[in-house]
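Lecture 7, part B: from sequences to assemblies.

Below are the input chains for today's worked example.
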Amino acid sequence: MPFWNHLECFTEFLIVLAGCYSHINMSNSDHGKPLIISHNGASGVYPDCTDLSYQQAVTDGADYIDCPVQVTKDGILICMSSINLMEVTTVTTSPFSSLSSVIPEIHDGPGIFTFNLTWEEIHKNLKPAASNPEIQYSIYRNPLYKNGGNFMRLGDFLAFGKDKDLTGILISIENAAFLAEKLGYSVTDGVMRALQDSGYSNQTGQEVMILSKNSSVLIKFRQQTKYELVYMVDESISDMVNSSIMDIKQFAHMIAISKQSVYPVSQQFITGQTKLVQKLQSAGFAVYVYLFRNEFVSQPWDFLSDPTVEINMYVQGAGVDGIITEYPGTAAAYRRNTCSKLGDQAPSYMSPVPVGGLLQIMDPQALPPTLAPMPSLHAADVVEPPLPAVSPKPSSFGAGEESGLPPSQPSYGRHLVALIFLSSVMLCGSLPV
Ligand SMILES: *[C@@H]1O[C@H](CO)[C@@H](O)[C@H](O)[C@H]1NC(C)=O
Ligand SMILES: *[C@@H]1O[C@H](CO)[C@@H](O)[C@H](O)[C@H]1NC(C)=O
Ligand SMILES: *[C@@H]1O[C@H](CO)[C@@H](O)[C@H](O)[C@H]1NC(C)=O
Ligand SMILES: *[C@@H]1O[C@H](CO)[C@@H](O)[C@H](O)[C@H]1NC(C)=O
Ligand SMILES: *[C@@H]1O[C@H](CO)[C@@H](O)[C@H](O)[C@H]1NC(C)=O
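Predicted structure of the full complex, as structure tokens:
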């Protein structure tokens, strides 16, 4: 190719680029599609759920910051990405390193759980430990800050979020049944109370989203509050039967599905596209997709190992409403760039890549194995028994007055015991002797 052809090409490229840049709106408050929800704050940059990662998420332009709540031994709700402190803190090198136990209901293998230590013990003795999801490729996140930042209680998180430029906050709740039954703690009541105490329940400035994989948690919030409710489907699925969608309609406004449930992948090659996003949207749901990361090994080959190409594919190719990401900055930069919204005029590098395109040009010998069919979600997968009543379990947790909960976090279990005790006293007192 003669030199001037290259030149022509290059000039064309510059013109396209200039066209794009003139459309770029640098304002951070351009909250269009996709909605950007953090995952453990900007956990790609700083350790999960720390003041640093939340501040980074706000600075980077997330619409929602998220707090996965866990409970401590003294009944304080904290933001912690795992119920097992061994995964996300320095507990194994702390004075509490011997406190491990096995609780198969909530975790595979041994753990030192948030409810085994008090808040004081956690924040005085432990440091956060950065998550490194791609450690098998020796990819470490921000090593300088691998133990940086401070842990936050739910109350701290709510106070932090309140005056920030956010659409709202998201609280995710898991293990509610276990906590009620085995530890006598109602995490749903605890979250509702914290939202009330911090003024989120009666303010209109910011939205509150509650996310759970367990419908019984959302049903409880549906009955008692007006918060936005997100149902997370925690397995990769190819479809949802109509009755399951109707069921979810009863208690959720949004649905979060995995990336694979939109573009199934075999050995990092995209094999197709499901109709789930469209189907859920026509049933009236906003559809959020998890989990987006920047590490180049986390994207299928079809996306050229580029996190922006991946985001563009989900937004333009699949039309998702929101993305849940550990790097909100990447998503916000994508959203600010109006190249992606120019429709037909969009430069070719902003078109979605052809679905399954790589498979078609591959040597048949080199094709990845056919994907085992992913299941459909059925109503039976959605429906759960209601949350168990909070048992007055005489465990080490919240039982005796000494280890009990502070007054602002009353244990309903204990109240129930007191009530039964009181009524029997009254009954006995009124009985003729
Ligand atoms: C950028 O977005 C803001 C907020 O949406 C809007 O007020 C402003 O006019 C936009 N600027 C340009 C150049 O489009
Ligand atoms: C952690 O807490 C659970 C629930 O109270 C308890 O069963 C377990 O024994 C505790 N682990 C240790 C090592 O104390
Ligand atoms: C909101 O609730 C808080 C805590 O319950 C209360 O102090 C505050 O006065 C309420 N604000 C409004 C506007 O109702
Ligand atoms: C499921 O619902 C969609 C949209 O309402 C409808 O088109 C489709 O036929 C239904 N499928 C079944 C199996 O009932
Ligand atoms: C969901 O919560 C119910 C109690 O409401 C419990 O029985 C069930 O095991 C939970 N499901 C999962 C998958 O945790």
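Note for the exam: Residues 60 and 329 are 4 Å apart (CA to CA). Keep this in mind when comparing with the next example.
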